[in-house]
Design a protein that fits this description.
The protein is mainly α. The chain is about 55% helix and about 5% strand.
């Protein structure tokens, strides 16, 4: 799990992963995500999510309802 429901906090591994994602997306290294960086993150996330869903659907592991995203 990514979230500790007893303590109401994200787990250390989750925080570390989110920080890593932020650092990768902050291409100009100013500590903020500008509109272009945020857009690139969103486009990349949708691309990866769709690919993962296609693979999971192929393996029969996930409902098609979960993977519906508009193009």
């Amino acid at each position: 799990p990514l979230y500790d429901s007893r303590e109401h906090v994200l787990k250390k591994e989750c925080v570390a992963a989110l920080r890593r994602i932020f650092k990768l997306c902050d291409t100009n290294k100013d500590g903020l995500l500008d509109a272009a960086e945020l857009n690139e993150f969103q486009v990349g996330f949708v691309r990866v999510f769709r690919s993962a869903c296609a693979h999971a659907r192929y393996r029969g592991n996930v409902s098609t309802r979960l993977c519906k995203l508009k193009s």
